[in-house]
Amino acid sequence: MTEPVNVTVTGAAGQIGYALLFRIAAGEMLGADTPVRLRLLEIPQAVAAAEGTAMELDDCAFPTLAGVDIFDDPVKAFDDVNVALLVGARPRGAGMERADLLEANGGIFGPQGRAINDGAASDVRVLVVGNPANTNALIAASNAPDVPATRFTAMTRLDHNRALSQVSARTGTPVADIRRLTIWGNHSASQYPDLFHAEVGGRPGAEVAADTAWLTDDFIPTVAKRGAAIIQARGASSAASAANAAIAHVRDWAHGTPEGDWTSAGVWSSGEYGVPEGLVSSFPVTSDGSGEWKIVEGLEIDEFSRARIDASVAELAEEREAVRSLGLV
Ligand code: NDP
């Protein structure tokens, strides 16, 4: 039998964790032939709730689930981890300044980065979901000097999927026939969903984007503010769609993106498209199944896109400055 893959999920007792764990255990992330051992990390107050989730996981009797362990210590939770999903984060409280939020998250993602550095398996892959995801990934990567920085990624796949769905609804094209959409920049309201390189039912995305009123007043803000709209409608933040996106991100990273298509992920910049080196920014990316994301290079960026990419990247650079001045990276 194949050796189980160790998958650590932080914030396991939260909403996203509850939507995520059962699908990972069922084999939807790494495949029906790959057994997984789940390692759940929670803060001490939430360990009892995580135990309840673990009981339900047991009760599913998933053939692919090789075991569930629960921890409140990151050093133990990340020991020998192959895939780490960093979901738990400090939410922005009422009246909390951005610097306070970044500092609180530095206290979570710094130690987690160090624990990954010291204990993870040599093939570890990390996806940060907890917000501010890009900068949390940067903090974790900066605290793991022995792990290649390219192994730390931030989730923009939900934004990507939201963009797909909006284009599908607008054009009547099935999502399966829409390819090469891109989310650029930060997973925040400044993100830029780019249609100009897409293909929509065989048509160039630029034709769809030619309706600039729809593009600027509807499509871009709808994608960027979708999370807030869901909170307003549901009375709770998106959880199932975020979990679905996390699974898709890791699945494509491990098994590859479809030929002729790409997806979006927050990855370590080496200076591509003028994004300063060492920022974790969303780019168009492919994977060939060898477990490395590759940034799609050589796309022509027009003035409209350039201004929006630059604005979102400037926000990432500001966040980096803020965590630098706090000594977190
Ligand atoms: P959720 O499970 O709903 O969300 C977890 C994180 O994911 C938040 O930072 C949230 O950001 C982020 N997120 C990213 N993308 C999305 C999206 N599209 N929609 C919604 N959320 C998104 O939070 P809960 O409060 O239910 O659970 C968090 C859990 O984490 C708690 O059980 C808590 O105890 C735990 N925790 C664990 C830590 C650890 O393991 N060391 C540290 C801190 C917390 P946003 O806040 O912006 O919505």
Automatic annotation (TrEMBL):
Limits of the Lactate/malate dehydrogenase C-terminal domain: 156-322
Catalytic activity: (S)-malate + NAD(+) = oxaloacetate + NADH + H(+)
SUPFAM superfamilies xref list: LDH C-terminal domain-like (SSF56327), NAD(P)-binding Rossmann-fold domains (SSF51735)
Entry keyword set: NAD, Oxidoreductase, Tricarboxylic acid cycle
InterPro entries in UniProt: L-lactate/malate_DH (IPR001557), Lactate/malate_DH_C (IPR022383), Lactate/malate_DH_N (IPR001236), Lactate_DH/Glyco_Ohase_4_C (IPR015955), Malate_DH_AS (IPR001252), Malate_DH_type2 (IPR010945), NAD(P)-bd_dom_sf (IPR036291)
Annotated function: Catalyzes the reversible oxidation of malate to oxaloacetate.
Protein name: Malate dehydrogenase
Source organism of the structure: Promicromonospora thailandica
